[in-house]
Amino acid sequence: MQARSALFDLFGDHLRPRGGRAPVAALVRLLAPLGIAPPAVRTAVSRMVRQGWLHPSRMAAGPGYLLTPKAARRLDEAAARIYRTGRIAWDGKFDLLVLDAPSARRERQRLCANLSYLGYGMLDEHTWVATRTASEVDGLLAEAGVRFERFTAAHTGGTAGAAALVRRAWNLAEIGQAYERFVAEQRPLLARVTVRSSDEEAYAARFRLVHAWRGFLFQDPQLPPALLPERWPGTSAATFFDRHAARLRPAADRYVDTCLDINHR
C-alpha cells in the first residue's frame, strides 16, 4: 500500500467526518499499523500539498494538514460511491465524449485513469461513454489541454442495444472476476478479526478492506442494473463489504479517536 493512496483513504474514511484535518504526528501514528514508515508519510504529505490536495495548518498539537476544498469534494464523491448512498438511476441516455487523445503515452495513461474514475468507458482511443454525466469532466479535459466534443445520446436498439454498447466499453467479465477475487482474498483476513481482537487490529483490517474496495472506483462505473448481467458478482461483493465495514467500524473509530486524542493533549 502506497503512502499517498493510504492518506487519501485515511482522510476520506476517517478524517473528513472529523473536520478534515490532523496533526502530522497523528497521521504517522494512524498509518503505522499499515506498515507505512514516518518518512514515507511525510514525503506523501508534501506531494499532496504540491498537488493541491492538502493545506498546511497550525494546530494545538503542532503542525498539521487540512483538506483543500478540491480534495473535500473529491472525497465526498468517492464516499458516496463507496457506500452507495445515492440511487443509481438512468434515463436511457449516454454521455458521449469525442476527444483528441494526447500523443504522449504518460499523458494518455493519466487521462484514461481520470476518465475511468469518473465512470467513463472507452469505445476507441477517441470515444468515451458513460451512463451518467460527470460535472468534473469538462474541467478535467480543459486542464489536460485536450480538445473534445460532448454529446448526449440514446441507443436506437433500446436496452439490448445499450447493454451491447456497455459490453464494448467495459470488460464486465473481468470486473466481475475482480469482485470475486476481492471476496475470496478478504474473507480469511476478516475472519481473523473477532470481538477479542484489539481496536488497532480491527482498524488495520478495516482500512485494508476499504482500500481494496476503493480500487473499484477505477474499475466499475456502477452501471444501472438494467445494463448488468444476471447474478452480477458486484452485488454480493457489496453486501460482503457493507457487512464487514459496519462490523469493524466501532473499533476502528475508537482507535482513530485515541490517536487523535493522544496528539491533542
Q: What is the rounded distance between the termini? A: 30 Å
How would you sum up the major sheet?
A: 4 strands, antiparallel
Helicity range: 55-70%
**Would you state the CATH class of the largest domain?**
Mainly Alpha
Q: The CATH topology of the largest domain is what?
A: Methane Monooxygenase Hydroxylase, Chain G, domain 1
Give the name of the CATH architecture of the largest domain.
Up-down Bundle
Q: What spatial order of strands do you see in the largest sheet?
A: 5-6-4-7
Mean pLDDT: 90
**Structure summary, number of beta strands:** 7
How many domains? 3
Measured by DSSP, the beta-strand proportion falls in 5-15%
State the low-pLDDT regions, or none: none
Morphology: globular
Structural class: alpha+beta
CA-based gyration radius: 20 Å
Helices and strands, in order, run as: HEHHEEHEHEEHEHHHH
Task: Please provide a written account of the structure.
The chain is of the alpha+beta class. The protein folds into three domains: about 5-75, Arc Repressor Mutant, subunit A (Orthogonal Bundle), CATH 1.10.10.10; about 95-155, 2-Layer Sandwich (Alpha-Beta Plaits); about 170-260, Up-down Bundle (Methane Monooxygenase Hydroxylase, Chain G, domain 1). Helices cover about 55% and strands about 15% of the residues. The protein has ten helices and seven strands. The chain has helices at about 5-15, 25-30, 40-50, 70-80, 105-115, 135-145, 160-170, 170-190, 200-215, 235-260; strands spanning about 20-25, 55-60, 60-65, 95-100, 120-125, 125-130, 150-155. A four-stranded antiparallel beta sheet has the order 5-6-4-7, sandwiched between helices. A hairpin with a 2-residue loop joins strand 2 and strand 3 (about 60-65). Helix 9 (about 200-215) crosses helix 10 (about 235-260). The model has no long low-confidence stretch (mean pLDDT about 90).
